[in-house]
Automatic annotation (TrEMBL):
Catalyzes the cleavage of 5-oxoproline to form L-glutamate coupled to the hydrolysis of ATP to ADP and inorganic phosphate. It catalyses: 5-oxo-L-proline + ATP + 2 H2O = L-glutamate + ADP + phosphate + H(+). One of its GO terms (molecular function) is ATP binding. Belongs to the LamB/PxpA family. Forms a complex composed of PxpA, PxpB and PxpC. One of its GO terms (biological process) is carbohydrate metabolic process. InterPro entries: Glyco_hydro/deAcase_b/a-brl, LamB/YcsF/PxpA-like. It comes from Arthrobacter bambusae. This is 5-oxoprolinase subunit A. Keywords: ATP-binding, Hydrolase, Nucleotide-binding. NCBIfam families: PRK05406.1-3, PRK05406.1-5. Pfam families: LamB_YcsF.
């Protein structure tokens, strides 16, 4: 099972997360590409650290929304979104190659991630940009999303993820962050959910419904105060349950 976490989200003198510690726990890092977060130095440092610790680098492409941290949905034309995603892929790939690493997959961020679960037009723009950049680049996303369907149709390797610290709706989508139950804060519950995802391929939705999910990767958010401790507990719980941690990329 792969463990992924968002990273490279600091900007200038403003720091987000503890990437140095998180990279020692996860097997894949979703590195911000400068639009929702991150700057050139942060991107370069993230790619270098990931390479040195044998962590796979993923392009965490998002809306051009630094003020909103990429969590505000945006109406964009096909060409605008196509260009923005292509720009981000090229930027991060350049940084990665400069330190001997490579961009091994793509995972959209925040509001863009959620929107292209159902918004086919935006999903087509994102997928067209990925395909134009590299027709063999793997795509990581939510099971049943429009993005993953289009990725499969385009011949890209597709990997499905689950969120150990996010609430689920009965239809398998994530509880919006504006609603109660969007984030699971109890460490014991998070570890239990991670093991259940990996071993049984399921999760309990906010209404108690059992939702079937068979993920290739488990996401741990790195922007909470206790993110590193939680990630370490999740990894330990998975390994104790006999789950081997290895990147899908």
């Amino acid at each position: 099972m792969d463990l992924n976490a968002d990273s490279g989200e600091s900007f200038g003198s403003w720091t987000m997360g503890n990437d140095a510690s998180m990279f020692r726990i996860v097997s894949s890092a979703n590195v911000a590409c400068g639009f929702h977060a991150g700057d050139p130095v942060t991107m370069l440092d993230s790619c270098r650290a990931a390479f040195e610790l044998d962590v796979r680098v993923g392009a965490h492409v998002g809306y051009r929304d630094l003020h909103g941290f990429g969590r505000r949905s945006m109406d964009m034309s096909f060409d605008e979104l196509f260009g923005d995603v292509l720009y981000q892929l090229g930027a991060l790939d350049g940084m990665a190659h400069a330190v001997g690493a490579s961009v091994d997959y793509v995972k959209p961020h925040g509001a863009l991630y959620n929107r292209i679960v159902n918004d086919v037009e935006q999903a087509e723009a994102v997928m067209a940009a990925i395909h134009a950049y590299d027709p063999g680049l793997p795509v990581l996303g939510l099971p049943g999303s429009a993005l993953l369907r289009l990725a499969e149709e385009s011949g890209h390797p597709v990997f499905r993820e689950a969120f150990v610290d996010r609430g689920y709706m009965p239809d398998g989508t994530l509880v919006p962050r504006s609603q109660e139950g969007a984030v699971v804060h109890d460490a014991g519950a998070v570890v239990e959910r991670a093991v259940r995802f990996a071993v049984r391929g399921e999760v309990l939705a906010v209404d108690g419904t059992v939702v079937r999910v068979q993920p290739d990767s488990l996401c741990i958010h790195g922007d909470t105060l206790d993110a590193v401790e939680l990630a370490a507990a999740v990894r330990a719980g998975l390994e104790e349950a006999g789950v081997e941690i290895e990147s899908f990329a």
